[in-house]
Structures
1.
Amino acid sequence: MARSPELEAILEAWFRSEYGAPNDRAEARAALIELLEKAAQKSGNEVTPFQIQSALYDRYKVFKAEKFKSSSVQVAQSALKPNN
Amino acid sequence: MPLPEPSLSAPRFAFLSESEEPKIPANKAASVVEWIAAQQPGLPRPIANAALAKIWLLQVDEFRKSEQLMMASGEHDKDLTTHCFFLLKLISNGKLLLDNAKTMGIAETTPEFTLNDLQATFDSLQTTYFCEYGPKNSDRQNKIIEGLFNGQKS
């Protein structure tokens, strides 16, 4: 199922904060927190940024698994290319 | 007979490419640094902290790779005890490392990472812990959150 652009942005920033280069982690985490705060404001602050992150955790795990599978496919494809 | 000019593209070892170099597990590397620090009581603490921070970051990376692999293979939720054990270990080591770095200093590690990057890595581990093992939202909260990403306000 297609994800909303807001959700996609949160999942991407979350992933970057865990798997990005170490020198990008502070910036990635700040971007993630900003996106979560915006979402919390959209709810009229009825939920906190962390409650949003907690609710999205299962979807984030699926997102991580998809990333792993797509990177494995890329690695396999590059290994099959001639002169590699 | 003159020796041939070394080729810039030649691998350093004939039997290993860069990507096949033997890897040292991060926990073994940490024990080496700890041993050096114990042998050299005069080793400046900021240097020891920087070395331990580099190794801790490697350990976190290994943990994240394993976690992702387990999620991709559908095995993650079947072995949460092991996941929780290693996650808590990284969190407790990271807390000690950050406290030491803040109180005793850390040698220059840029551009590899800053103290803020270490803090962010630590915070992301804590987030994982609370998301996986912490208290869950109420149904009402989840309904509001679901609405946020379906074009509804609540």
Note: The mean pLDDT of chain A is 91.
2.
Amino acid sequence: MLTRRAVLKCGLVAAGAALLPSKATRSYADIRLPSLQLTPFVDKLPFPPDLTPVSSLDPAPNPAVHQYFNFEDTVLGLPPLSPLLYEVDQTEALHQFHRDLPGTLIWGYNGSLPGPTFKVYQVTQATYREVQARPVLVRFHNHLPQDHTGFGVPVTTIHFHGGHQEPYSDGFPGALADIASCKGQLERFFAPFPPGGAFEPGAFFDCYFPLRDPGFSFGQHEVNDRPATLWYHDHLLDFTGPNVYKGLAGFFLVFDELDTGDETGTRFPGTNMRLPSDAFDVPLVIQDKAFDAQGRLLFDTFEHDGFLGNQFVVNGTIQPFFEVKRRKYRFRLLNGSNARVYQLFLSQAPNSKTVFHFDQIATEGGLLSAPIRGIDNFRLHPAERVEIVVDFADPQFKGVTAVYLENRLQQDNGRGPDGLGAGTPLLQFRLLDERPEDPSRVPDTLRRHNTISPAELAGVTRRTFEFERSNGAWAINGQFVDLCAPVAQIPVNATERWRLVNKSGGWVHPVHIHLSFLHVLSRNGQVPPLNERDGNALKDTIYLGPNDEVEIAFHFRDFTGPYVFHCHNIEHEDMAMMAVFNVHAV
Amino acid sequence: MCRSKRARLLFWAVHLMTPVLLALYCAGHPVAVPGEPGDREGEPPRTPTRASALADAPRGDYFPNIILRTHDNQPLRFYDDLLRGKVVLINFFYVTCGDVCPLMTANLVQVQAALGERLGREVFMYSITLDPQTDTAEVLKQYAAGYGVKPGWAFLTGQDAEIQRLRRILGLYDRDPRIDADKTQHTGLLIYGNEATGRWGAVPALLAPERIVRAVLRVIGPQPAVLTP
């Protein structure tokens, strides 16, 4: 007789309530999330640790599987550069989300939620000279529990979201076995480089990032096409949603001779923009999660619309507080949620009519051409990044001792958000009296982006991709993801112009395209707003609201092989709303 | 007559054997559960561990134990008989649904072929009608016969209200009542999962058959599925 205890001993029963979607988010009568009443603002805002390089890896990395591993840049006069080596271990760990919750089992890079932060420099003449900038190679170990039960699959592949890198290191979502099943197509489409893939517990995988300006391989370095805030996260086919939700996500910050990480101006004199740096440069990842009374993570695997939690977590802590001095801060906001959209305000009190103003300086594609000054709110869709500078020394904060980062967008299902309404404070800033000297600046010109020229767009290949709902499933141009069948074959270093169309009724889809930053040419036939407009911004995630139609153009530079694009409502992505394009040599 | 009796026997045999096999498997693989209360007397339970997070989850309280009837006219309980301890593929369809369902059933026939001997042993397939009044067991039997359905794949009918509830519990519904009333809207997804380990997913029912099989193998764990080409 198989008793429950025997099953427990056998390790076959899933993680209790974490397994059971029974109390989860669906909004019909008998399904409700437990509403834990947790006191907000009792925990300090935590910061994930910075990663430091290691001296060597055993076994040594295999250069043969990477593109441009020993690249000599004769145009810039840079010799082949051996990469900085990093080592990251994916493990299960206990994590404290709130003072009054017991420890929660999560999956984290180095057991940390969010994962440890990479801080690296783009490889340019200036950064090579001044800080010996080099490419980066990260060895990811998979020590997730092989006998894991409950939601999440302990097989992983890691995507560097927003990065310009080879497919092998881009987190191609399939397992090698899946790709092997492509049989003859593998050679036909993906040769000569291996496409990479997912790996099992006990194995490791090396990701290589040249950190070169796009166009480097043919001597046309696009010096203004540089990221600032990237993130890395799990990308396993069919199971990205639960794996990211369990904690597999972290920041990857890129600096250069303009955006230096040194507000004093000591480094890179002459080019240094002196944006707020170090303790005043604060990454904030926002996620919604759900917990039971024992602190266990809840996830509804039968919520096919997109999972929404009812607790709000910033850098891994539920509604934390952050003590700030009266000076400028740079906040790098990332929406790391599966399906929730935020509209964020800085308010004097939750739902207060008094909201504060700040400058937006960057989006996914790094710094804007010019800051967007004096805004008082912005939207943040899944996977998007928005960077702002808030000057707490500004007269608008005179006499103010607390400020709230507040989400006022209403959303009760994965279909998409409703309008503005009662706000939820995500983070409390406590304004200290201290008014230190502030050497940082927000220049009127940041990183200048030229609009894509009509000459460059003339005669390029145009494609249309329609994001649809089909009998309850999601599709792109009527197709479901097939890793073996690219929907577009693109010669390397080509430019293309794509129309992204949302035909799925009331559904919304944040569409993420790998490999290159995107120039947004039009939204619904109109000039796009400044925060995504070509010439002011570059993007990697394009939000498609109901019936939206967005035109983008972008380059497929340097690397060859298969890449994916997909909806970043991760539940939609996991249900095959994804497609492969293949960049081939010419 | 004789054939269908044999099929019925086979169907029951595979369903009843799974828990036995599981028990045998467990007996051969004792796994320590540190921190489980009662493991060592006098020791307080430790801080949460994997094992204590495994505690107290009566899994059956989520899935309804409604009675469904197979195309062989056997009444079976959804949770106890069809789901408990198994790896399953579940889709909804109905016989008269026009173009969409035949495509999906034809696709699942290829999944059946690709699963080979796993079907009925490691993996079970259930196609549940959304039109139970029309789709009686007899109608389903004919339908199944027309597609060459093998033991381990059951076409199921039951009470309309109960099936509607089951569909919603598996997440197949639309918030727009007009769309929700259109049965074809619930035919596009295939729910798959391992009830014993709580690993569930969903894919389009029209996804390439080999892709569906790979997705299902991914939940057969806890040990990673052996992916033989």
Note: Chain A has three domains: 43-266, 280-431, 454-584.
3.
Amino acid sequence: MPDLPTLAAASVLGALVVYALLGGADFGSGVWDLLSRGPRATARRMLIARAIGPVWETNHIWVIVAVVVLFTAFPRGFAVISTSLFVPITLMLAGIVLRGAAFAFHHYQLHEEGSRPGWALLFAGSSLLTPILLGAIIGAVSSGEIRVNAEAPAASSAWLAPFPLAVGLLTLAVFCSLAAVYLIFETDDPDLRDDFRIRAHWSCGAVAVLMVAVPLLARFGAPDFFHALLGSDWSAGVVFLAASAALGAQVSLLLRAYGLARACVAAQAAIILCGWGAAQYPFIVRPDLSIPSAVSPPATLRAILIALAAGALFLFPSIFALLRIFKKEAFLGRPPVSRG
Amino acid sequence: MDELLLARAQMAMLFAFHIVFAVAGMGMPLLMVIAEAAHLRTGEPVFLELARRWARGTAVLFAVGAVSGTVLSFELGLLWPGFMAFSGGIVGLPFALEGFAFFAEAIFLGIYLYGWGRVRPAAHLLSGIAVALGGAMSGILVVAANAWMNSPAGFVVMDGKPTAIDPLAAMANPAWPTEAAHMTLAAFAASGFAVAGIHAYKLLRDRENLFHRHALSIALAVGGTAALLLPVSGDFNARFIARDQPAKLAALEGQFRTERGAPLRIGGIPDMEKGTTRFAIEIPKGLSLLAFHDADAEVAGLESFPPEDRPDPLPVHLAFQLMVACGTTLAAVSLLSAWRAAARRGGLFESGFLRAVVCCSPLGIVAVEAGWAVTEMGRQPWVIRGVMRTADAVTPVGGLIFPFAFFSALYLALGVSAVWLLRREVSQSPSFPLEERAAGAPKE
Ligand code: HDD
Ligand code: HEM
Ligand code: HEM
């Protein structure tokens, strides 16, 4: 049984994983909206809007859960990250605001008189930039370049380096791959399905390339993290799992075994994040701020963990209901029949 | 402007923006649920149309509330890392619980908005009720965090660090009940009157439209009930502050001297240099009577606090006067509408009264903004009263003018866009003329 602080850290990571799997895919869909060209562009855009309309706000809350648990369980960690990464966090917030509001406005008008190019472009563009910033923040926290100086805390430019930016691109690629595969399930039009299958191939390929490039860059940009990632006794397992998921995704996409493909891309995203978490452990901000030095007292951890567990009891049935109503077809893996 | 002032201004701007949408997120679901329940009970399509329209408005407002709320959760750390490092472990709990209220709201709003015809009518109504409960709960829970800043509890400070932390005691701090009750009522009053004003405006053009008549009645019933309770609830707040946060009370009343039988001041401009509040109408012994229910009770004035611990009474007093003026007006209009509705059929739909409702439309939200200015500026110079000064909480990062300018511009654009979208919604009113009521069919 892990101790309370580790459990709390794992909850933050868990919320991030769910955010990536659900909210991340909504960002990825926005990118596919941005890149919609050619004959079926409008159909793809409509499909994307319909797919994320009912769920994006729920999916978005996972990032709030991650932040809230972070600042409750590791208040000093939150303070240090907020100070040192002030600039990318502010930019990411701008992206979150623009994406959400533009989508809501655009979607709202879609009912009325077709889309408005302004909102649509804003929605799509911010969907592209926000994941890169999120990834860069995660990369910067691992890079070892953010030093905690109690005397003169200041904003850091650690995120503007090859390693964090590559993590940003990896995040973007992962979100795009999730979106492409999920979107296959949202339609029964063979052409549209094929469009997204091809996009899934490309984005999974990009994930695979970046999964090699990011550790290589870490060697120079984040040496301690690199050693933890590849030099621990669990490293071989993570590399093996990640490689199998990547391969499995490509093969199942080729075979059009979409259910399997979805399992593979989701597993791949989760493995990447958990691998990051394992290599980052026991640090919140490498190398100066570790879990024990930033953690809240046990009474707080107990309260928040109990709150999370109790909340989950209510939450999961509700989310299940939401998905069952709107994603029934996608859930069961069968192509949707036309609705009456 | 110095960086601390910029940080405060940015925080104020972000909150002033979020609270508008938060209020809508608490109040609008109740209105749409009432309309839908009326539809289920009477079978009249006009109520269904009303529920759908209100739900569509709620969707836009909710989206802006969600993103602006997300900004706040990060900005607490970005602007006030010292505050968060100290208090995250103490008051994180209500924020975490609030997260689940958000889930309830978002999930069931998704079902409500996109589920017409996909789920059974009763289930649809139930999801609307879940949205309303989720909205109310998120407001109530987050106010616990704010109440804790006013009335800190659940920890002991040792060597500048909190110890003996008890998150439940922090959440159940003494200021929470009065603040939460007042905020929840305020949200219903503000959204009720805002909506009532819009429909009253439409009725002035199209007196016989049943759609707007029902809308006005429902919105006035909700807003009016809340507005009548607000002065009562506000009195509890004031009496609580009188005991718990005397410096804030002194600031909001413009009370400089410590005296027995202190007067209640209506209007007036506190003058820091002279140490008096000028041009006020004074009701002898009124303040002692209201705040302590005893005409000769002693009220501590600002002079009894060291200068570095005093809030600035000028904005606090003016904001308080503004809130009370709005509250009094709204309560009076609510009484009037109750009387008119009881006196005769259609009493709510005469042009004089409709004009009054239109004028009252913004007062609720104005009072909310003013009330928060009272609470927040009245707490200065503390961010956690008596424990941490705002100046010690602020970020060391410089150049705060850039995020401030940036978010101001962004929010201005968002606000204008949201208003523009909703204005279009309002301008295309469905027509349910009075005569065709029996036939029950809308005439587009
Ligand atoms: C529609 C809105 C509205 C209306 C009509 C009123 N208020 Fe209010 N008031 C609020 C909306 C509000 C608020 C914005 O919601 C505040 C800010 C913090 C809070 O809990 O509620 C608030 C705060 C607030 C406080 C400070 C609480 C604190 O700092 O702890 C006091 C003393 C009052 N109110 C008193 C009154 C009185 C005596 C009213 C009589 C007419 C009144 N309010 C009407
Ligand atoms: C008195 C103050 C506040 C009230 C009454 C309030 C209420 C609400 C309500 C009712 C919502 C639902 C969304 C909507 O209606 O638009 C909301 C959204 C939100 N609020 Fe606030 N809030 C307040 C302050 C805060 C603070 C201090 C924070 C952050 C620390 C915050 C964070 C959020 C977040 C993250 C959301 C988005 C939830 C989602 O994604 O659905 N709010 N707030
Ligand atoms: C749960 C709710 C809230 C929390 C946790 C909260 C927290 C804070 C914090 C940490 C500050 C900065 C420190 C300080 O100036 O004391 C602040 C300032 C401020 N907030 Fe709030 N706030 C809440 C609700 C609101 C709302 C709803 C409004 C207004 C609509 C508001 C208006 C302001 C203003 C005007 C300031 C600047 C005060 C000053 O510096 O003079 N707050 N708040």
Note: Chain B touches chain A through 66 residues (CB under 8 Å).
4.
Amino acid sequence: MTRTTAPVPPRPRSCPPYRGTRYRTPARPLVAVQDPEAVELTGPVFGAADITPLDHDLTRQHTGEPIGERITVTGRVRDRRGHPVRGQLVELWQANAAGRYAHRLDQHLAPLDPNFTGCGRCLTDDEGRYAFTTVRPGAYPWRNHVNAWRPAHLHFSFFGTAFTQRLVTQMYFPGDPLLALDPVLLSVTDEAARARLVAAYAHDLSVPEWSLGYRWDVVLDGPCATLFEEDGR
Amino acid sequence: MTAPHAPTPSQTIGPFHGHALPVVDGGAIAPVAHPETITVHGYVYDGAGEPVPDALVEIWQPAPDGSRTGAPGSLRRDPVTGRAAGRDGVTFTGFGRVATDADGRWAVRTLPPGGVPYLSVALFARGLLRHLYTRVYLWEEPGDTLLASLAADRRATLLARPEPPRTYRFDLRLQGAGETVFLEFSGAGRP
Ligand SMILES: [Fe+3]
């Protein structure tokens, strides 16, 4: 390339914005609720009947083995004070190894896998731990902008002890070159916060001759009644 | 907060949660054929006035006796097939979850909440970076601090419209004219 003396233009945003937000984001500020008696400081509970013992293993929901790189993903769910969130529901959904969801509206021309639906759930244990066995999802295109691709990701849903702690988010894989180009991930503008959505490869969690391990810990935001009782505030 | 306990950021629910989250009987919060059952229904609209066909509405509320402990069983699974089994028809869990249909419509059947005049709502949708909280007020109570703090036109967005018998209409408008009042709770719980 030839060198020019022209001033360097400001670097454009590395990525177009997430267009779907345009008509769906409220224009008015949120209204703060200060009520210590708010119903939202408590939340729903789940139990053994809400899951089956195989729901955490997405590779065993059909008669055959799904195609793809088998992974185990585990971590702890805690509140802002670091206390484990026990016995709460964790839900997972994802594309298959080729990057296609088993959803009729997903018309990406990648193969469906008859042995993979891509949905799982489990309850956290006494230490707030969840664990899933699944396959690594593929990247997939979407129509946000020309040549837009979502990096490989797992969708997660968490419940805490309060409805205010509810969290739906996405987990990403370390070292993925698409992370720097993804408007959905970049919608989290703080770099340190973005990094908390990327799992760590954990060799100690890899099972010999079976699966690769990833660790991803989660902290639920938002107040709950017990949080403030313990604080004595 | 210290770095180790910094909260995990939210991300959009996206369009493809349909196999994972909505369940059979998710909106059937009231026990089967309970005589006090009410129906609460409405539409979700975006800022262009278009219905939102891929939203998820979650409801949390006290039981009619005012208890807020909830109960398991909202999302029961059949251990034989692994599929959704529906509720047991008896237990009041306090939790409901329904997806909007192609017209952007949602509906739940539940029992009136005890001790408060509202149902709590968490709304999830593609294009929302974080879910939104609001409340469906089934009736007004003079001492309600949230309603009292709002101007009349804003307050109106939280009031369900009675459609007798025992039915209430509540639309959610994400943006623009008649935008629903959405809530945040970061200061809740502090005296
Ligand atoms: Fe996705």
Note: The domain at 16-172 of chain B is CATH 2.60.130.10 (Protocatechuate 3,4-Dioxygenase, subunit A).
